[in-house]
Amino acid sequence: MRLANRVAIITGAAQGIGRIYAERFAEEGAAVVVADINEPKATEVASSITSLGGRAIAAAVDVSDVESVNRMVDSAVEAFGTVDILVNNAAIFSTLKMKPFEEISGDEWDKLFAVNAKGTFLCCQAVSPVMRKNQYGRIINISSSVVVTGRPNYAHYIASKGAVWALTHALATEMGTDGITVNTVSPHGIITEIPRETISEEGWRRNLEEQALKRKGDASDLVGILLYLASDESKFMTGQTVALDAGLRFT
């Protein structure tokens, strides 16, 4: 198994794509910390994993709160002894209100940055001591293709995910000396079971027209690259952004 004897914290893991990440990481041998602001759902996911023979615990976390994030990491170390992998999946997106940037309030801007950008920063900061001590770590940040392509009415979201992209570059240079890799996955056009207001049917139609691959993506299209970045197969790769966008743009 690709992640045997590894310990992974996955934020936003109680539902949607995050849940699938947690389940697949467990199938590949990792002990998983199912971290989410929704503790009952996180507990449900952790129980499902353990019922199938995997190792998992639930951790209630508000990624925008430093004390909550530190408790999450402490829980991981207490349960499993260490932290090897961090997937920063928690974000505000499905409930995002699309609007012209002139109509975005300062409070809306701050809320998005508190979770999407600051939350990623705090989680990376919290796992750093244990990863540096072990001289090993895999950090995977989740950004978005709209950072590059742009979209109207997403200014607050695009800016917050652009910050994640830039943070990845900064941390890769700072943490590489201790054997820690930091990479970003930048998805586009992924459907989940979670209803969202961020794209209309017309938006999906436009996406498919612009993509080289003429279909919507799902979690199975993402989880493979996350497993690669979390494993030793990617040990010589850091500071990179992997675009999973059906050929929306070429690099």
Automatic annotation (TrEMBL):
Keyword presence, Oxidoreductase: yes
Listed SUPFAM superfamilies: NAD(P)-binding Rossmann-fold domains (SSF51735)
InterPro entries tied to this protein: NAD(P)-bd_dom_sf, SDR_fam
Binding site for NAD(+) 1: 15, 17, 36, 61, 89, 94, 144, 161, 189-190
Residues given in the record as NAD(+) 2 binding sites: 17, 36, 62-63, 89, 94, 157, 161, 189-190
The keyword Oxidoreductase is annotated on this UniProt entry: yes
Signal peptide region: none
Superkingdom, taxonomy of origin: Bacteria
Keywords: Nucleotide-binding, Oxidoreductase
EC number per UniProt: 1.1.1.100
Record GO terms (molecular function): 3-oxoacyl-[acyl-carrier-protein] reductase (NADPH) activity; nucleotide binding
NCBIfam families the UniProt entry points to: PRK07231.1
Family: Belongs to the short-chain dehydrogenases/reductases (SDR) family.
Protein name per Swiss-Prot or TrEMBL: 3-oxoacyl-[acyl-carrier-protein] reductase
Source species: Mycolicibacterium smegmatis (strain ATCC 700084 / mc(2)155) (Mycobacterium smegmatis)
